[in-house]
Amino acid sequence: AFTPRVFSGIQPSGNLHLGNYLGALKRFAEAQNKGIQTLYCMVDLHAITVWQNPADLARATRELAAGFIASGLDPAKSILFNQSQVAEHTQMAWVFNCVARMGWMQRMTQFKDKAGKNAQNASLGLFAYPALMAADILTYHATHVPVGEDQKQHLELTRDIAIKFNHDYGVEFFPIPEPVIEGAATRVMSLRDGSNKMSKSDPSDMSRINLTDDADTIAKKIRKAKTDPEPLPSEAAGLEGRPEARNLVNIYAALADMTVDQVMAEAGGKPFSEFKPMLADLAVDRIAPISTEMARLMQDLSEIDRILADGAARARTIAAPILRQTYEIMGM
Ligand code: ADP
Ligand code: NA
Questions:
Q1: Which residues are ATP-binding (predicted)?
Q2: Going by CA atoms, what residue is nearest to atom 22 of ligand 1?
Q3: Among the atoms of ligand 1, which is closest to the Cα of residue 188?
């Protein structure tokens, strides 16, 4: 049996938002307090599978680290590090390139989505990306991987790689990691339509609350969030077919650490002219301090770099022996 260990990564691609906070950062920070070892990685090597401006990438990496810490992640409890600083990831990725089959990779829907019509012009890295993701996870013998819906297929591939390696070499060396999928209540939708995910790539800044927004901006975005004209229903069942209302209630519940039923007990029947100010106050209360703390951390980039270097050193103490054993199993 493998010791439970959590690994997850986020791409440093800028524009951290409320969805990243409720779906990832906040949950990652909570997981570190459950007595399980947690590793969180800024996956810059994944980011470069598509073009990244170097200065923007450097800044986004530090900003993501600041976002983790401002969201409550304690770098002394969790291992917080930058992927490119631990060379074992890419070394293991090569091994897994040789384990994974072309046909497996060709089935990955995210490659098809991201490469678009001109797949011949996509980078080889974008195609091989899931093998690097498998390396991120398995180089730590991680057993639990918090992932969004969109990464489920890649985690399935990670499991296939672990199973094939163990089978081919007749070992029980790699754990078969389990996905930890975010609940519907933590899937935050756009403030403009309620049916698309809140996303960093949405051209409308009003569609998302950025973790760098100040209190006034947060309140304004909630005030202007799209809703239907009816007041809130009296019970959760009445949110059916009302995606904008459901989204705002879900956001309230997630920010307040309440269930949707608890929110409805408090706010059911209220018009949005009353509920939106309640939500705005709550969002400002929870998000504005994160924005302030991120800005403070970003004033001292050398301190962030020190934290990341320390995290990389600790990550390597786990990764290096596992890579060495992997090579030995393979006769290298
Ligand atoms: P990546 O490409 O690294 O997955 P994303 O910004 O898409 O970058 O997601 C980073 C993390 O935030 C992931 O764990 C993802 O599931 C989560 N996330 C992103 N958008 C949302 C959202 N709207 N609601 C909930 N979680 C989200
Ligand atoms: Na994603």
A1: 11-13, 19-20, 148-150, 188, 197-201
A2: 19
A3: 24
